[in-house]
């Protein structure tokens, strides 16, 4: 049996080596390149592929894999929004993801972004860079005074809630599906409008679908409290960047913590030396603001997460090749 992996980084190699040692019957090949129509040919002779990328999986790339007799794809991450399910179904692929590699990684990053905004850390850093060691005017806010609106109470949203409760925050939550624990605590509100009305901080933890693209738009922001903070560690396309910029310009939005951005692939993963050189005008605009914190889709990036992403994705791919049905097969019929 042979598995070929795409987009393998140096930091993944130790976990990959461990997996190979534990699975001597499997031959593993890999490349640093992501899966494209060109790189797909590298998987020739393999029974399945393991991948990780934020750029779209094109039909052309999938067609090449199919022509090589490959039907099994295991991604090393959670989100499946960069696949067209129709392409997978037309071409007869089975897809697995890693639904729970470490919700804590993303949840901790989320709460850290909130804290850095509340205590105005970028502004203090900027003052420090200018030799200014004074207090005013960078007075902060405390977590325990905040009502946080958590949109999406799945694996990540629920850990966010737990951490925030430890800091003494009041939490209100919204989800199309009600989790028993969150329900019992009485945290759900009935509508996004109600959540926007109550929340000092709005944080997003839902998958991206066609139906919720740009859910944070002019209308949503207008329904939020004056001086709201917006945090996005889910998917960039959930926020209409123009609406966010307008909100920041007017002061309606006091700040934003953004691990993901619309069109992030044009900017993230590269070195620009200075925010002035960022080629996407809207991201450049955001990057120049001291009340906006941007991280390069790195909320997931911890040692624990990387190890689990490698282990689960390779286990799943091997299981598919062996004709088994791992419980993390993605339902591509929806
Ligand atoms: P999950 O599937 O466990 O939870 C998602 C929740 O969203 C579910 O409870 C679901 O019912 C709810 N939901 C779906 N559509 C909704 C809608 N329109 N309105 C309200 N609720 C809705 O997923 P998760 O593991 O918590 O991850 C959430 C998202 O975080 C992923 O889909 C992914 O896009 C993103 N993510 C980002 C990173 C990162 O590094 N920044 C890492 C992992 C995941
Ligand atoms: C996910 O797991 O969905 C992420 O967003 C992490 C990223 C490496 C793709």
Question: Nutshell version of this structure?
Answer:
Keywords: NAD, Oxidoreductase. This protein is of the alpha/beta class.
Describe what this molecule looks like in 3D.
The chain has helices at residues 13-22, 59-67, 85-91, 103-118, 121-129, 155-166, 180-184, 192-198, 218-222, 241-250, 281-287, 303-321; strands spanning 2-5, 27-30, 48-51, 72-75, 94-96, 147-151, 170-174, 201-204, 228-232, 253-258, 292-294. With 334 residues, the protein is of the alpha/beta class. The chain folds into two domains: 2-101 and 303-322, Rossmann fold, CATH 3.40.50.720; 103-294, NAD(P)-binding Rossmann-like Domain (Rossmann fold, 3-Layer(aba) Sandwich), CATH 3.40.50. Strands 7-6-8-9-10-11 form a six-stranded parallel β-sheet, with helices on both faces. Strands 2-1-3-4-5 form a five-stranded parallel β-sheet, covered by helices on one side. α1 links the parallel β1 and β2 (27-30). α4 (103-118) crosses α6 (155-166). It is globular and about 65 Å long. The two termini are 31 Å apart. The model has no long low-confidence stretch (mean pLDDT 98). Bound molecules: nicotinamide-adenine-dinucleotide and 2-OXO-4-methylpentanoic acid. Residues 52, 54, 77-79, 297, 300 line the site of 2-OXO-4-methylpentanoic acid.
């Amino acid at each position: 049996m042979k598995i070929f992996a795409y987009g393998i980084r140096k930091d993944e190699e130790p976990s990959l080596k461990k997996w190979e040692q534990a699975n001597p019957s499997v031959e593993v090949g890999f490349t640093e390149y992501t899966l494209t129509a060109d790189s797909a040919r590298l998987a020739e002779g393999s029974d399945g592929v393991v991948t990780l990328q934020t750029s779209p999986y094109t039909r052309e790339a999938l067609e090449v894999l199919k022509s090589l007799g490959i039907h099994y794809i295991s991604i090393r991450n959670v989100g499946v929004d960069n696949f067209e399910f129709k392409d997978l179904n037309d071409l007869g692929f089975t897809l697995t993801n890693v639904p729970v590699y470490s919700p804590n990684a993303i949840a901790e990053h989320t709460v850290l972004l909130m804290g850095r905004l509340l205590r105005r850390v970028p502004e203090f850093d900027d003052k420090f860079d200018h030799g200014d060691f004074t207090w005013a005017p960078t007075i902060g806010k405390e977590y325990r005074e905040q009502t946080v609106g958590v949109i999406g109470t799945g694996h990540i949203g629920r850990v966010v809630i737990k951490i925030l409760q430890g800091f003494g925050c009041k939490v209100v939550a919204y989800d199309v599906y009600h989790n028993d624990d969150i329900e019992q605590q009485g945290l759900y509100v009935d509508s996004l409008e109600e959540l926007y009305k109550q929340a000092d901080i709005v944080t997003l933890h839902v998958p991206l679908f066609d139906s919720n693209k740009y859910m944070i738009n002019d209308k949503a922001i207008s329904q939020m409290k004056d001086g709201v903070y917006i945090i996005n560690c889910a998917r960039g396309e959930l926020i209409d960047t123009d609406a966010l910029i307008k909100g920041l310009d007017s002061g309606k939005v006091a700040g934003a913590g953004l691990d993901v951005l619309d069109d992030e692939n044009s900017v993230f993963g590269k070195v620009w030396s200075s925010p002035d050189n960022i080629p996407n005008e809207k991201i450049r605009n955001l990057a120049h603001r001291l009340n906006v914190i941007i991280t390069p889709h790195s909320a997931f990036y911890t040692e624990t997460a990387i190890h689990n992403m490698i282990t689960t994705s390779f286990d799943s791919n091997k299981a598919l090749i062996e004709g088994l049905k791992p419980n993390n097969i993605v339902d591509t019929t929806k």
